[in-house]
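Action item from last meeting closed. Structure (336 res):
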């Protein structure tokens, strides 16, 4: 089997230049592409709305600072100890401890006073994380460690479709569909003033496939999870390079997303043509079995008020010709 040539693509957009809550995606390869880390982080604007002044006099929200700070610390961690699939459990605990200690130190650097936060739901330096650590195995499979906190997501896209590797940390354990409909609150993410955890799952991935980490600005403004899969596949089929794929995705997301968005994708370059062919078949399946019926229901839903009025009009204008109207002279009501 041909040795995998791992390639990355990254996508990053700020609604307000220099003020976005998404950090730039993290994409790092080590040991001649035999292992690496990919991640996205989305600072939580609601919980992290407090404004901090930095030593250089600039000001930013906690959400802005948190996503970038934690990204930097994750990079530092893996530069010292590269992803090791045989030590996953220990590494995960080490990452959590390292981030927690660094956030504590950062709070002191920013001179954040906890007394100002009493009595509300504000979190200090809150951010989501969706991260995948990967290793190329001897049989050219990928051993991956799927790690997350919050509602940013990890996926795998292959000939069978788009598969969720993570589960949003939201109230009620809402699934991808419920999250779109209800926007439930996040109950676990990375933050300084409250305990947090990093969820983990491990997989052995058979190529060809694409690994994806993305924030909610990528999928949260589409009608359904099926539409997100269609968007990914359609743009991938149109592209000839990873850079072109990312640009096509950005062009499609800009008109519809009301948020910052960031995404990182990884695949074996040698699988590009095979994936295009297999995903073309999957696109037809998604379009015919899911998108068309779903869009049909959306169209019906939009037309419900008009249909209701039509029914009412028909009801209200029921033929009354069989009734004899009373002329004004025949009206016996009122005073004479």
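Sequence:
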């Amino acid at each position: 089997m041909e040795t995998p040539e791992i390639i990355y693509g990254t996508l990053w957009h700020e609604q307000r230049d220099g003020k976005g809550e998404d950090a730039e995606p993290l994409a790092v390869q080590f040991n001649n592409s035999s292992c690496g880390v990919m991640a996205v982080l989305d600072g939580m604007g609601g919980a992290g709305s407090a404004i901090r002044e930095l030593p250089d006099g600039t000001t930013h929200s906690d959400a802005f600072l948190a996503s970038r700070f934690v990204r930097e610390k994750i990079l530092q961690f893996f530069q010292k100890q590269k992803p090791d699939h045989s030590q996953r459990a220990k590494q995960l605990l080490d990452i959590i401890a390292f981030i927690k200690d660094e956030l504590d130190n950062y709070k002191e650097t920013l001179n954040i006073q906890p007394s100002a936060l009493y009595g509300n739901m504000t979190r200090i330096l809150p951010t989501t994380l969706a991260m995948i650590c990967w290793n190329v195995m001897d049989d050219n499979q990928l051993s991956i460690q799927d790690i997350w906190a919050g509602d940013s997501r990890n996926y795998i896209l292959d000939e069978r479709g788009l598969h969720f590797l993570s589960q949003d940390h939201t109230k009620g354990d809402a699934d991808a569909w419920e999250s779109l409909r209800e926007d439930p609150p996040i109950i676990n993410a990375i933050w300084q003033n409250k305990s947090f955890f990093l969820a983990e799952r491990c997989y052995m991935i058979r190529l060809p496939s694409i690994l994806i980490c993305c924030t909610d600005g990528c999928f949260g403004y589409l009608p359904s999870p099926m539409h997100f899969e269609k968007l990914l596949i359609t743009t991938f089929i149109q592209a000839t390079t990873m850079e072109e794929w990312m640009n096509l995705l950005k062009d499609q997301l800009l008109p519809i997303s009301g948020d910052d968005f960031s995404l990182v994708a990884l695949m074996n370059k040698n699988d590009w043509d095979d994936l295009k062919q297999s995903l073309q078949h999957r696109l037809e399946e998604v379009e015919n079995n899911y998108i068309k019926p779903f869009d049909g229901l959306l169209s019906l839903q939009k037309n419900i008020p008009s249909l209701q009025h039509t029914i009412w009009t028909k009801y209200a204008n029921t033929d009354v010709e069989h009734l004899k109207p009373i002329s004004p002279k025949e009206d016996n009501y009122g005073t004479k």
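Note appended to the action item: The helical segments are 62-80, 88-109, 176-182, 216-219, 225-238, 242-253, 272-316.
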